[in-house]
Design brief:
It is a single chain. This protein is an alpha/beta fold. It has 2 domains: about 1-80 and about 255-340, Periplasmic binding protein-like II (D-Maltodextrin-Binding Protein, domain 2, 3-Layer(aba) Sandwich), CATH 3.40.190.10; about 85-255, Periplasmic binding protein-like II (D-Maltodextrin-Binding Protein, domain 2), CATH 3.40.190.10. The protein has 13 helices and 17 strands. It has helices spanning about 10-20, 40-45, 55-65, 155-160, 190-195, 210-220, 230-235, 245-255, 270-290, 295-300, 305-315, 320-325, 325-340, and strands spanning about 1-5, 30-35, 50-55, 65-70, 75, 85, 90, 95-100, 100, 125, 150-155, 170-175, 180-185, 205, 225, 240-245, 255-265. Strands 1, 2, 3, 4, 5 and 17 form a 6-stranded mixed β-sheet that branches. The two termini are about 20 Å apart.
Length: about 350
């Protein structure tokens, strides 16, 4: 009996439905299944508790001595990255180079020559001259700081709410290091991408990914890093996108974003590792051929998500890379590790990344 951990999110339940319900040949293997959010799975892998598990690629760097990546079951893709959102309507207000990436902002060319000063460590953001419908009581008084580098600038709410000051363009700048950011876990790939784009964003609060939107609306955090199905629901709750970190990564590297993969213990026999890889691939292929087969199972774990949102989620995160990483997928994973090592975000691995 092999222990198998994955999340209750639609992309994972879609992938593993055929495997755990014996709709395919599992080659004599039996699995004990555990459903947990990805950061809980990351933590369990750090303790070596599971034989096979879904992991963030960021977390993989810290367990690579004990686990190896399978070719099947991964979540990679374009346009699938985490979003940084807020209850206030921020937007990028100037062209700044962020760790080698020239962002195209406000109609300016992304190919223009760039320079990077030591002071520029993050994007500068400015709140648009309107108030979000989301609660902002935690910022009812303008906050000021003497340090204005790596800052988010905004127009004070006192001006925005006063008709006599609608033309007041004064701004207050806040170092991004002072803004409280809700993240879905320290070892998530989402947090890695946030650190890549905003090196000075250090004031982070770890929370379950599904609680981030609520915390923004309650005003307990200033910014939120959202993943999974929250990509489809944040606008309905009056929240606003600041930056798509997936787009950031794609412009930086030209690669798909490696979000999560399926890892198996290195200590297991090679025969078992390859057998598990074949079974997971078979399960994904069955799901693609019979997309409605697991609807009841997927719905039971989808937190009352509508069927439309469930299948949007699946379409976003399950694709050819889920069947097999292939050359492109492996390049994307290697690039992620190379970038992270270069920035000293992760230790340099001594083992092979791939099975």
């Amino acid at each position: 009996m092999l222990t198998l951990g994955f999340s209750p999110c639609p992309n994972d339940t879609f992938i593993f439905d055929a495997l755990i319900h014996h709709k395919i040949d599992t080659e004599g293997l039996q699995f004990e299944v555990l459903f947990e959010d990805v950061e809980t799975l990351n933590q369990k892998a750090l303790r070596g508790e599971l034989d096979i598990t879904k992991l963030s690629y960021h977390a993989y760097a810290y367990v690579i001595e004990n686990y190896v990546l399978l070719d099947a079951g991964s979540a990679l893709g374009f346009g699938v990255g985490p979003l940084l959102v807020s209850g206030r309507k921020y937007h990028v207000s100037s062209n700044e180079e962020v760790e080698g990436l020239k962002l195209k902002v406000e109609g300016q060319s992304s190919n223009a020559p760039t320079t990077k000063s030591k002071e520029v460590e993050s994007l500068k953001l400015k709140v648009e001259s309107e108030v979000s419908s989301a609660p902002t009581t935690h910022n009812s008084q303008p906050t000021t700081y003497s340090h204005e580098l790596s800052a988010i600038s905004y127009q004070p709410l006192s001006n925005l709410n006063d008709p006599q000051h609608t033309t007041d363009n004064s701004q207050h700048k806040i170092p991004i290091s002072q803004l409280k950011i809700g993240i879905p876990g320290k070892y998530t790939t989402a947090n890695f991408l946030l650190s890549l784009a905003f090196p000075d964003a250090k004031n982070k609060v770890e929370m379950v990914f599904s609680d981030i939107e609520k915390s923004l609306l309650e005003g307990s955090i200033d910014l939120g890093l959202i993943i999974h199905e929250n990509r489809f629901t944040y606008q309905d709750k009056g929240l606003h996108k600041i930056i798509d970190l997936g787009e950031f990564w794609e412009k930086l590297t030209g690669c798909a974003i490696p979000l999560g993969g399926i890892m198996i213990k290195r200590s297991l026999p090679d025969e078992i590792k390859h057998k598990v890889n074949r079974i997971i691939r078979r399960s994904v292929e069955f799901a693609f051929e019979n997309p409605k087969s697991g609807i009841d199972f997927i719905s039971a774990h989808s937190q009352e998500m509508s069927e439309e949102v469930m299948y949007k989620h699946i379409e976003l995160y399950v694709n050819k890379y889920s069947i097999d990483l292939g050359t492109e997928g492996r390049k994307a994973v290697t690039t992620l590790f190379d970038e992270a090592i270069k920035r000293k975000v992760i230790p340099e691995p001594k083992q092979n990344l791939f099975l």
